[in-house]
Amino acid sequence: MNFKKKRLNKALEDKIYRVKLVHSKKGWLAVGLTFITLFSATMLSQKTVDASAVNNVAIANSTTSSSVQLWNNVTNNEIHKANRGLANGTAWKTAKAVKGVDGETYLLVGVNEYADAKQMDLSDETSSQNLTGVLRTSSSKSIIRLYTNPLAENGAQLITNRGLAKNTDWKTDIKVVANGETYYRVATNEWVKASDAYLVGESSRSNKAYTKNAPDENTNSNSNSSNNNGGSTPEPVQQSTITTKYVDEDGNEVADAKTEKANKGEKYTANSITVDGYTLDGESSQTIDSVSGDATLTFKYTKDSEPVE
Known about the structure:
The protein is mainly beta. It has 3 domains: 3-122 and 213-221, no CATH class; 126-205, SH3 type barrels; 239-303, Sandwich (Immunoglobulin-like), CATH 2.60.40.4300. Helices cover 3% and strands 51% of the residues. The strands form 7 sheets. The protein has a 7-stranded antiparallel β-sheet with strand order 1-2-6-5-10-9-8, with no helix packed on it. Strands 12, 15, 16, 17, 18 and 19 form a 6-stranded antiparallel β-sheet that branches. Strands 22-21-26-24 form a 4-stranded mixed β-sheet, with no helix packed on it. Residues 208-289 are annotated as: Disordered.
C-alpha cells in the first residue's frame, strides 16, 4: 500500500461522532460530525456517472441512524465526512452519481456534497437489498395492508384476506424499491410498504442489486477532475400528501384509506383495490397530471346483492 492509500485509510478510521437535527430554510439537516465508518481505499481514476441520477429525486434512508451522512471529495484522496446529513424520509434533488475512491457509489446533492447510494432511494429505481432488521407498523391505521412480491411480473398485489396489526414489530430480511416505492418483506411472499412501517432496528444491510435505473450503470466519464461541484446546497423536494379513499354509496369507508407522499409537479396515479362483497363503480385508476398540493382521490363501491334463499 502506497503512502496516499495509507493516509486515506488513516483519515477514515476510528471516527466516532454525534449528530443532531436542526431545521433550516432548506429543511431538516443533521449537523455535527458522524458515525463509525471503516473503509479500505481503492484508487479509481474512472468516475462513473449515470443519466438516471441526473436531475432526479432521492429519498434519504439511513441504515443505522436518523439521517444519511454526507461526504466531501469522494473521488480523490481527500475524501472525508461532511458536518451534516439528510434526515430520513426526506426527498432531495440529485445532480449525478459518481464512483468514489472507496468503491462506493455516491449521489451528488449539493456543492461537493455526496450521499451513499445504498442509503438513498431514487424515485424511479427498482432494486433489492438483503438486510437484518425489525419493522414497526404504523399506529395510524387499524390494519396494515400486505402485498405480494413487488418484483414479480405483475408487481405488488394487495393481499385481501389478512394484514398486520398496528404498532407491532416484525422481522424483515429484504428491502425492495419498485419504481420508487419501498417495501419490506415480513414473510415468504408478504410485503409491507415503507409508508406503513418503519425500521426500529437493523444489524446489517447489503449493497443494492438493481434491476432498473441503477445510478452507476449507463454513462462513463474518465475525467480526473477533483472539482465535484454540482449545485448550491442540498435542495429538498417539495412534497404533497395524496389520500386515496374507498367508500360505499353513503360515503362510508369499505377499506382503509391509503396515504402517500408525491413530489410536486409530478404525475400521480392511484389504483382501485378489490373489496370483498363490493363492486367498483367507475374507472379502476385515477390520475393527477401534476401534483400541486394535498389531494384526496375517492373510489366508490356498490354493495353486492345477497342471494335470496
